[in-house]
Amino acid sequence: MSLNIVYEGSLYPSLVHSEESLRFAREEFQVRDEDVFIATYPKSGTTWMQEILPLVYSKGDLTPVQTIPNWQRVPWLEQKSGKALLENRPSPRLITTHLPYHLMPKSFYTSKAKVVYVTRNPKDALVSSFHYHNMASFLENPGTFEEFIQRFLEGKVMFGSWFDHIKSWWPRKGQDNLLFLTYEEMLQDMRGALVKLGEFLGKQLSDDAIEAIAKQSKFDNMKRNDMSNYSFVPEELMDQKKNNFLRKGISGDWKSHFTAAQTEHFNSIYAEKMKGLNFPFYEG
Ligand code: A3P
User: Fold this and answer.
1) Is the separation of the CB atoms in 54 and 74 below 8 Å?
2) Residues 37-91: pLDDT tens digits?
3) DSSP code for 24
4) What is the C-alpha radius of gyration for the chain, rounded to an integer number of angstroms?
5) Would you tell me which of 35, 82, 200, 243 could form a disulfide with 113, CB atoms 3.0–4.6 Å apart?
6) Which of 198, 184, 216, 147 is CA-nearest to residue 282?
7) Structural domain harbouring 80
8) In this structure, is residue 31 part of a structural domain?
9) Which of 17, 98, 131, 133 is the catalytic position?
10) 23/3 Cα distance (integer angstroms)
11) Is 136 among the domain residues?
């Protein structure tokens, strides 16, 4: 069996996606006004937000993140398990997606559902993805780092091009139902990010709640949380002896991977592809 399926021109890991699951997400899934989506390009802080969002809803009570695995507490819409986990779930449903804006469920566009879009420096997402491909047997061998950079720039990686993902979501900035957060701002100022999230979601968070959420969602605490660190996934699928899923949790790790020539090449393609988008992050 091939490790990927192709859907609308992009690759999706076939272990957890099928044509049927992707078609269900697009055509059949009924979005409700109370739904809240986490939307990300892979390796940009999805798992992190899957920790944070349930804690915002529980107002800092740790029970959901200590008792429910992340893929159940904020299930992926487009995965094979999405339909069973989400269709009959009471509102408010917290839902994860890696889909670009234009492939969201058809019922999404006329709904009041909210979306928290987390973005990350693409060079760091690339590095994270490279290591992930090396430890996950259900993903293709990434080849050399040089080869992987090329594949990433061409969008021949899971969920397609980083650039296309951003270009599909970013122009919607300013819509009331959409909040953009960056991985880097969450690292620098989690309390500030939590205040933004609370306001966006209409959830009043006390100082104690903010404190509890910020603490629980720290990298080291999540790494210890079996409900969030993927330690239940068999070693044949994810070999966490090679790399932990929660690997480093820093920004700027690309600097210890990219050569000067690779940086220059990446930056020139970045400048070309992002021209005119008015997207303020990650130049240089
Ligand atoms: P690294 O491989 O650079 O460490 P996703 O969940 O979208 O797949 O993204 C995974 C990346 O987010 C990994 O990056 C992971 O370590 C990082 N991450 C997850 N939780 C984090 C946290 N609490 N703080 C910082 N980074 C975190």
Assistant:
1) yes
2) 999 999 999 999 999 999 999 999 999 999 999 999 999 999 999 999 999 999 9
3) I
4) 18
5) 35
6) 184
7) 4-121+164-239
8) yes
9) 98
10) 19
11) no
Asked whether residue 252 is domain-assigned, the answer is: no
Span from the CA of 243 to the centroid of ligand 1 (angstroms)? 12
Confidence of residue 283 (pLDDT cuts 50, 70, 90): confident
Question: Using an 8 Å Cβ cutoff, are 90 and 153 in contact?
Answer: no
Q: Is the beta carbon of 247 within 6 A of some atom in ligand 1?
A: yes
Residue 131 contacts by C-beta under 8 Å, 6 or more apart in sequence? 243, 247
133 lines ligand 1 (CB under 6 A): no
92 Cα to the center of ligand 1, angstroms: 25
What local confidence, expressed as pLDDT, does residue 284 receive?
60
Q: Is 102 a catalytic residue?
A: no
Provide mean pLDDT across the span 14-24.
98
Q: How many CB atoms lie within 10 A of CB 12?
A: 23
Cβ neighbours of residue 149 closer than 8 Å, sequence gap 6 or more: 126, 258, 262, 265, 266
> 92: cis peptide before it, omega within 30°?
yes
26 Cβ below 6 A of ligand 1: no
Residue bearing the CA closest to ligand 1, atom 24: 219
| CA of 21 relative to ligand 1 center, distance in Å | 26
Instruction: Copy the structure tokens of residue 146.
Output: 């040089």
* CATH (domain of 233): 3.40.50.300
Residue 247 placed within a domain: no
Residues paired with 5 in a beta bridge: 12
Closest CA to 151 of 159, 55, 173, 250: 159
| Residue bearing the CA closest to ligand 1, atom 17 | 249
